[in-house]
TrEMBL record:
Transmembrane segments: none annotated. One of its GO terms (biological process) is negative regulation of DNA-templated transcription. This is Pramef6 protein. The keyword tRNA-binding does not apply. The keyword Repeat applies. It comes from Phodopus roborovskii. It comes from the Eukaryota. Belongs to the PRAME family.
Amino acid sequence: MSSPLTLQMLARSSLLKNEALAISALNKLPMELFPPLFKDAFKGKQTKILSAMVAAWPFRCLPLGALMKFPDLEILKAVLAGLDLLIQQKDRPRNCKLEVLDFRDAHHNFWNVWAGTEDGVCSPDVVVETQPVVHHPERQGKEVVTVMMNLSLHSRHLCEYLECFHCWAQQRKDVLQVICEKLEFGARPVYNPLELLEVFAPCSIRELEVNARWDLRTLAKFAPGLGQMKNLQKLLLHEVITPLRWLWNQEMKRRCFRQIVSQFSQLNKLQHLCLNRVFLLNARLDQVLRNLERPLETLAITRCSLSESDMSYLSQCPSVHRLTHLDLSGVTFLNLSHPLLGRLLERLTATLQTLKLKGCMLMDFQMDVILPALSQCSQLVEVNLMKNFLSLTSLKKLLQHTAHLTQLTLEMYPAPGEVYDDFGDVLPDRFVQCCSELLDTLRAIRQPKEVYFVSKKCLDCRRFCVYHQEASLCSCWE
């Protein structure tokens, strides 16, 4: 049985049935009625009322993103029309306090707080806690409105929603500050990505992720924008490819690389650098890292080709001596001097919390060299050595060297070479026996929290055999 309607609900319903009355009543409406009335108008797509409410909003921030599950062009146009009404007013109404329009999926608590105030008054302290802190510059004596949004661009073209906002914002630069803390490209754009930064303040961007296959030319074209991101803390580049017609044009590749790398000296606040399948790094890693002024917390160089000189530089690079997270998964160490990896780990014994060396083609003789340093990484919480070629003896030695790593909560190791037949297929009984033996070795020195032993992928079923410390038999993963 549904709850009976309250007097406030009935009043809101009555107002929304008469747009003219609702708009004229806004100046006299108690502030505690604004959020629930706005939510009702939002659900009903009553755009004229929404525009008027934006122009009369009695709070410092309007967290619109918390209400929007999907971009809605009608709602956007209504809200921007309301901002125009506000901007055009020479003297703001005393009750109107709007400074920030927040399109991010955040500050849900604001709406939850006010939804629960129908029978009481909301504390001013609670209202303040639900509002973001933003610096508002003044431009030529004009009050500036701040718009906040995070962008995840998964289409090659700008959608109609963003095109509308971009066009509107470009025409109001003198009274508008647009903050985008997280910018993600999920596709290679056909438009010039630098055009976005004509609207968004580049210095507001904290995280930049390029999760699409950008070619070298597109990244070089975007590089000047990267250099303007003075407060960038996280940079992720996934799969930078070379256009086919450039494969033999070394001069063009060098020129683009210089354009990209020259911008790293501007990233003074970078803390997390993640590079996956960025093949232009080979023999050039020093040119990327030497420009960083601040020590990194995270360095992930995965599925990349690194040269001997790259590893030599990495083992002594000033920017990596405080790493808490190191991921070199997919970097092949078969032809590299393995002592360099040991030297790198020696520098990180006091700080390293996560170590991922998955699929690095590490063998027994290489593990022998890095074990002394690994055993001293007392802050390690997670270690992943899957997809390497280690024997039962080598794995036992590895586990015995982890006696002092009491912080470990997640450990993932390769199944030993002895579990496979001559064709590389897993022998189930042998798999269980060897993994059980390894677990007993580990339990003899410390009590593990979560440990997995994982086989190579089966050629027939395309799955991995997994042995977990809670399981008496192996299971399969996709």
